[in-house]
């Protein structure tokens, strides 16, 4: 949250409470504390806490729980989305059961295609009818499947399914057996099959092949921190931080020894050497990482590389192994701007909801420097970027904050 925009006002000691709260959350804390997820089982009208026995009692900071019969075996499985990592978790229901279930996926044709609002009433011989409605938007940034699921216990024949479509048209389907069905409005059910009962398990991405690249649409000037060697005058600069005992770092260095990256000046920095020679720069690298990934003092995956253009602006961050071809493409595209740059910065194409294209806000970065008590680097940064900082309406407040922190520091 930008300085002075919290709306809460300063604390008694002149601090910004909203900013402190934000920092607390960025460090991985939660507003709701370390509460484990809770699951209650409805047993004939009385609720039993079955959290630990189901294995669902994780301490994630959950935001949305989504139910779906993912493996189409007749029981509901669960996806949970979290604010912190892991951001999604899948819980496959492997509770042994000889019961049945039916999954019904509806498609409207004279009503909305997703059939949102459709109500399905399922009638079996000896039990009460069950009713489900197709809804959307059941959670924060995630929602349950629009496929309706009915648990049937031992029932093996459904006497009748009544569908009330959103345009008030009714459809009756009789004598259907448990399974998975797609029903197009007005048509007979079409059964769909399970492709595989085995959930595909991808290898852990943090093993030797880990790589990730973020092409930034908002380019932060970093001239204050990274000097440009004369041989990199007309080329982008790639600063790569490596650590010892890191297999990916060793493999990356070996690859570059055989085939150096083209179109870029490579600067390899060893973390242990930098920790001795310039520990402040190491802190700055951590801070830059935290700033762009909106975290606080998280361990940085290595190798970590920063692509800096000829104007000393940070253009891309690579975590792990760098794909040579991608790096070359990024260097070729380093001078694009506006909508072209914005489109390249996202992992897939789409339609932008806003025409406004934001640019980096150096003032936010200086605030992070001040939060980290890096007052000299902050003053140095202000000095180097004074022209762009002056355009920010909150710049006078930033200077006041810097002066206040300096005087705090000088007070014995
Ligand atoms: Ca299932
Ligand atoms: Ca199952």
Features:
412 residues; five-stranded mixed sheet; alpha+beta; Immunoglobulin-like; four-stranded mixed sheet; 18 strands
Quick synopsis:
This protein is α+β, with helices and mostly antiparallel strands. The chain is built from 11 helices and 18 strands. The protein has helices at 17-26, 51-54, 247-258, 271-277, 279-293, 324-332, 338-344, 362-371, 375-384, 386-390, 395-410, and strands at 40-43, 46-49, 62-68, 77-82, 88-91, 100-107, 119-123, 130-133, 148-153, 158-164, 170-176, 180-184, 190-191, 211-221, 237-242, 265-270, 304-308, 313-320.
Tell me what the structure shows.
This protein has 412 residues and is an alpha+beta fold. Among the domains are: 100-191, Immunoglobulin-like, CATH 2.60.40; 211-346, 3-Layer(aba) Sandwich (Glutaredoxin), CATH 3.40.30.10. The chain contains eleven helices and 18 strands. It has helices at 17-26, 51-54, 247-258, 271-277, 279-293, 324-332, 338-344, 362-371, 375-384, 386-390, 395-410; strands at residues 40-43, 46-49, 62-68, 77-82, 88-91, 100-107, 119-123, 130-133, 148-153, 158-164, 170-176, 180-184, 190-191, 211-221, 237-242, 265-270, 304-308, 313-320. Strands 14-18-17-15-16 form a five-stranded mixed sheet. Helix 4 (271-277) packs across helix 5 and helix 8 (362-371) packs parallel to helix 11 (395-410). The longest helix is centred in the last third of the chain and has 16 residues, at 395-410. The chain is elongated and about 80 Å long. The relative contact order is 0.10. Residues 1-6 have low confidence and may be disordered. The protein binds calcium ion (2 copies). One calcium ion binds at residues 73, 75, 93-94.
């Amino acid at each position: 949250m930008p300085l002075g925009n919290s709306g809460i006002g300063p604390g008694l000691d002149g601090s910004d409470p909203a900013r402190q709260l934000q920092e607390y959350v960025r460090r991985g804390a939660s507003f709701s504390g370390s509460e484990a997820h809770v699951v209650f089982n409805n047993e004939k009208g009385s609720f039993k806490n079955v959290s630990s026995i189901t294995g669902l009692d994780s301490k994630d900071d959950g935001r949305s729980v989504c139910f779906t019969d993912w493996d189409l075996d007749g029981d509901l499985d669960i996806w949970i989305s979290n604010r912190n990592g892991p951001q999604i978790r899948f819980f496959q229901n492997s509770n042994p059961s000889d019961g049945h279930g039916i999954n019904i996926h509806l498609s409207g044709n004279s009503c909305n295609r997703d059939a949102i609002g459709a109500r399905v009433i399922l009638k079996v011989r000896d039990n009460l009818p069950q009713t489900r409605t197709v809804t959307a938007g059941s959670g924060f940034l995630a929602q349950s499947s629009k496929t309706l699921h009915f648990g049937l216990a031992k029932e093996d024949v459904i006497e009748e399914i009544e569908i009330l479509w959103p345009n008030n048209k009714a459809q009756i389907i009789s004598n259907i057996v448990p399974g998975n069905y797609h029903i197009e409005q007005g048509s007979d059910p079409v059964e769909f099959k399970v492709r595989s009962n085995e959930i595909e398990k991808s290898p852990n991405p943090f093993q030797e092949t880990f790589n990730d690249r973020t092409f930034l649409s908002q380019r932060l000037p970093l001239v204050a921190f990274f000097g440009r060697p004369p041989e990199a005058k007309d080329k982008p600069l790639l600063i790569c931080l490596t650590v010892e005992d890191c297999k990916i770092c060793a493999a990356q260095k070996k690859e570059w020894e055989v085939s150096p990256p083209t179109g870029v000046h490579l600067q390899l920095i060893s973390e242990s050497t930098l920790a001795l020679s310039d520990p402040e720069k190491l802190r700055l690298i951590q801070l830059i990482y935290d700033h762009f990934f909106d975290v606080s003092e998280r361990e940085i995956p290595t190798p970590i590389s920063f692509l800096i253009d000829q104007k000393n602006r940070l253009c891309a961050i690579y975590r792990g192994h760098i794909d040579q071809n991608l790096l070359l493409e990024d260097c070729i595209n380093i001078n694009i701007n506006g909508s072209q740059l914005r489109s390249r910065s996202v992992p897939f194409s789409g339609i932008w909801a806003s025409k406004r294209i934001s640019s980096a806000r150096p003032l936010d970065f200086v605030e992070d420097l001040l939060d980290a008590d890096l007052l000299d680097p902050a003053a140095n940064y202000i000095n180097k970027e004074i022209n762009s900082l002056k355009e920010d309406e909150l710049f006078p407040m930033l200077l006041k904050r810097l002066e206040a922190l300096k005087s705090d520091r000088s007070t014995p």
